[in-house]
Structure formats: C-alpha cells, structure tokens
Amino acid sequence: SGELSCSLPNPRNVHFESVNMKNVLHWSAPAGTGDGVLYKVKYSVYGVGKWIRKPECKNINRTWCDLSSETSDYEEQYYASVKAFLHGMCSDWVETTRFNPLTDTKIDPPMVSVSSTEKSISIILTAPGKWKKSPEEESISLLQVYPGLQYNVSVLNKKTKKRWFFSISNSTLVVPWLEPGTTYCVSARIRVTTPLLYSRFSKEYCIATLKDK
Amino acid sequence: TAGIRIFRFGPCQVSLSMTEIRAGFNAIKANIQARDPIRTLSILSYPHSLHKVQSSDRCCITHQLFDFYVEKVFKHCQTEDSSINRKISSIANSFLSVKRNLGQCREQNKCTCGQESSEKLKQILENYEGLNVTSAAIKSLGELDILLDWME
User: Fold this and answer.
1) Residues 6 or more apart in contact with residue B132 via CB below 8 angstroms
2) How far is CA A63 from the centre of its chain?
3) B34-74 pLDDT, tens digit each
4) What pLDDT was estimated at residue A1?
5) Strand positions, DSSP E, chain A
6) What is the pLDDT of residues A78-105, one digit of tens each?
7) How would residue A4 be classed by pLDDT, with cut points 50, 70 and 90?
8) Which cysteines does the record link by disulfide bonds (chain B) (predicted)?
C-alpha cells in the first residue's frame, strides 16, 4: 500500500468558532499548497481516552467542519484535530486548544419587540436559543444555560438625543413618563456575569409614542 | 466588588469574587492547558463528571475541592513566567478565604459530608496521585473552569 509520508506542511490556526453553542471547527490551508488539499477531522472529549473520527468531514476540501452535535454537552470540554493530504503526502494532526462550550461561545443579541402608548413604551426581550440538532428538537434558551443572564437596554429619544441605559434580569421593560408623539429607538444586548460573556447590541427598533388626544 | 457571588449551601453561605477568578483563569488558561499533554485523564471529571454530584453533598465537596486546590495544586504550579505566577497566587488567595469560610461551616455542622463526597474526593486524589506532582497540579489548575462551571 502506498505509504503516506507526513511531510506536508500542517493546517494552520485550527480553532473552534462558536455562536450560541453552534460549534464549528475552522482552519487555514497549509502554507504554499494551493488547490487540491483534502482534510480529515477527529475530536475527543477531554478526560476520555479516544479520538473519534468525523465521517462527514473525511476527505473534504473545505476548511471547516461542524462539530456542534459532537460537542453539544456543555458540561464537557473537547479537543479537535485536523490532518491534510495532497498528492500522496500528509501533514501531522494539528489540534485545537481545549474547547469549553460554556465559556468559549459567543452569544447573539436578544430579539427585541416594542410597543407604545401615549407616554410609555414596552419592550420584550428574548434570549437566543442554544444550537439544536433539528427544528423538531426542543428549544433550550440560553437563559436556561446561563442563569445569571441579564439584558442591557438602551433607549434613545430621537428628538432630544437623550439616551437611557437599563440593566434588567427579566425579559420585559416598561419605560414610563415619555413624551407623546415622539420617536424612541431601542437596542439591547445580553450580558452574562460569570462566565463573563457579552453579546453585541441588537440593531435599533424605533417606535413613536401615540399623540396626545 | 463587582462580580461577588454568594453561594448558599443550605445554612452555609460563602461569598466568592467569581468574576475576578474567572478573569484570572482566562488570562492563564491557554498557557496552563498547553503544559498539560494528557488528554485521556481528567482529575476532576474522571470517571464521573462533577455535575453528577447530589445536591446534599455539594457543600462538603466544595470545601474538599477548595482544600485540594489550596493544599495540593496552587503551591505546585510555579512557572517561569512571573505574570502567570501572580495570577495563580491571586486565585489562590481567593480560594484560601473561601476554604476557611467553608471550614467554619463544617465546624458548625452546617456542611454535612456523606458517602458521595468522600468517594468523589477519593477519586480525585487517585487521579491526582496517578501523575507526578507537577503534572497533576498543572492539570488540576487547567481544570479550574470545570470547578467554576460546576459551582455556577
């Protein structure tokens, strides 16, 4: 059998990119190899002996591999590794650092919905859901994963440019004593105190308070 | 101070600057974990995850774990990098005060220890003693987030 010589340069920058615990392994092609490089991927649970191959990422030419399903238990930590092949040559296996889904994921901004009366606006915030295998699977809110999850809310009076900031734990906020017939713009982000995680601010949602009767 | 968390174990209550400890650990995590080449063993999670521990024993196991880190881990984690060492000793100081507070709870019988906690501690010590002291201490330090995640 054609014995492979592992003198191919290694894949570079092998790392997990994780958003809402959708955990995708990424890497860069070996230096100077051009097209035609294929890759294999394996992963392991920290503290457990064996490496497990990922069949869907065997002999692939893309430089990413979705390991969300394999790393969905966020009470565990993981390593993943990539090997490159080209013209009968191979590289070494290149590993990630230890991946902790709980602390190493990024969180999307919350969904924001706003309604208004004459002198107040009501804001309802919804934390994103944890990644799930299929739409049928039961949704788990990141609120359940991070009990210390809070919302930072910004409210801007478009006329006066005055801005308020609120920090709340529950998901609804009513801002009273506002001016009738005025546009207010709301933006929110998620903040987890420990492990310390911040989402980006959501885009702005603007709404006008009703005019005086 | 920001990030002080109060942990209640029945009648026993201790406070811990979790954000500070997490920040300190995050700063040294990659460096310390890179010094631990052994993927096949976890000091805290082998063979059973900490998350399987019954709530009745949480206070005792927490005290045992803080005692383990103070007595068997931090003092054996000297590195050649002084900034890493400073972060380690800052975490160690936080652990020391929590260990004392939990110790007082035990003296006042507010922190009962059952069979499960003694079995878990026995397992941790077996895993620890299966390696040479420095490797075991570095591996344990690299697993600090496992302890912090479990506590939270």
Assistant:
1) none
2) 19
3) 999 999 899 998 887 787 777 778 899 999 999 999 999 99
4) 47
5) 12-19, 22-28, 38-45, 52-53, 64-66, 78-86, 89-90, 94-95, 111-116, 121-126, 149-157, 163-168, 172-175, 183-192, 197-198, 205-208
6) 999 999 999 999 999 999 999 999 999 9
7) low
8) 12-105, 59-111, 60-113
Give A148's contacts in chain B (Cβ within 8 Å).
152
Which of B25, B113, B16 shows the shortest CA–CA distance to B64? Answer: B113
Test A196 with B22 for CB contact under 8 angstroms. Answer: yes
A128 phi-psi bin (left φ>0, alpha ψ -120 to 50, beta other): beta
Interatomic CA distance for residues A204 and A126, integer angstroms: 15
**Positive or negative torsion for Cα A143, A149, A150, A152:** negative
- Given an 8 Å threshold on Cβ–Cβ distance, is B19 in contact with A49? no
Which tokens sit at A115? 């309604």
Q: What's the CA gap between A9 and A6, in Å, rounded?
A: 8
The chain B residue lying nearest A46, using CA atoms, is: B39
User: In which element (H, E) is residue B97 found?
Assistant: helix B82-107
Secondary structure class of A1 (helix, strand, coil): coil
The answer to whether the CB of A198 falls within 8 A of the CB of A103 is no
Q: Give the Cα separation of A8 and A202 in Å (integer).
A: 44
Chain-chain contact of A195 with B22 (C-beta, under 8 angstroms): yes
Q: Are strands A197-198 and A183-192 parallel, antiparallel or unpaired?
A: antiparallel
Read off the pLDDT of each residue in B70-80 and give the average, rounded to a whole number: 95
Cβ contacts of B28 on chain A, cutoff 8 Å: none
Taking phi first (over 0 means left), then psi (-120 to 50 degrees means alpha), and beta for anything else, what does residue A208 get?
Answer: beta
* Distance separating alpha carbons of residues A205 and A122, to the nearest angstrom: 12
User: Which chain B positions have a beta carbon within 8 Å of A98's beta carbon?
Assistant: 29, 33, 142
* Structure tokens that stand for A21 in this block: 């615990």
Tokens standing for A76? 């565990």
With CB atoms and an 8 Å threshold, state whether A98 touches B51.
no
ipTM of the complex as predicted? 0.88
CB of A12 within 8 A of CB of A28?
yes
Measured over the CA atoms of residue A95, residue A100, residue A104 and residue A106, the dihedral's sign is: positive
Residues forming beta bridges with residue A175, ordered by sequence position: A121
